[in-house]
Design a protein that fits this description.
3 helices, two-stranded antiparallel sheet, 2 domains, about 100 residues, alpha+beta, elongated
Length: about 100
């Protein structure tokens, strides 16, 4: 497919080409030029945490630095205990309704 370069120095990528390449509005593109050739590549977005997420990360890192953390085994044990308590409660409720 061909297109014409206008005086504005903007090139429009035809909709069918964008669709085939999976490029959507807002995607970041990288341009590379060589002798009479331009290669356009979609750049994978880089995740940037929100202010709230960054604050939570900093808080967590500070807690770890102070030695305030839960080991994986402690976490799994706590989750298992909560699951058992929730399961027993649900079973009791079901048996009362019968």
């Amino acid at each position: 497919m061909t297109t014409i370069v206008k005086n504005k120095a903007e090139v429009v990528v035809p909709r069918s080409i964008r669709r085939q390449a999976g490029i959507k509005a807002g995607d970041q593109l990288e341009f590379k030029a060589s002798d009479r050739s331009i290669t356009i590549t979609a750049v994978e977005p880089v995740y940037r945490p929100t202010k709230a997420e960054a604050a939570a990360i900093r808080k967590g890192e500070a807690e770890i630095a102070r030695g305030e953390f839960v080991t994986l085994n402690e976490l799994l044990n706590d989750l298992d205990t909560r699951r058992r308590k929730g399961g027993a409660t649900a079973t009791q409720k079901n048996s009362r309704q019968r």
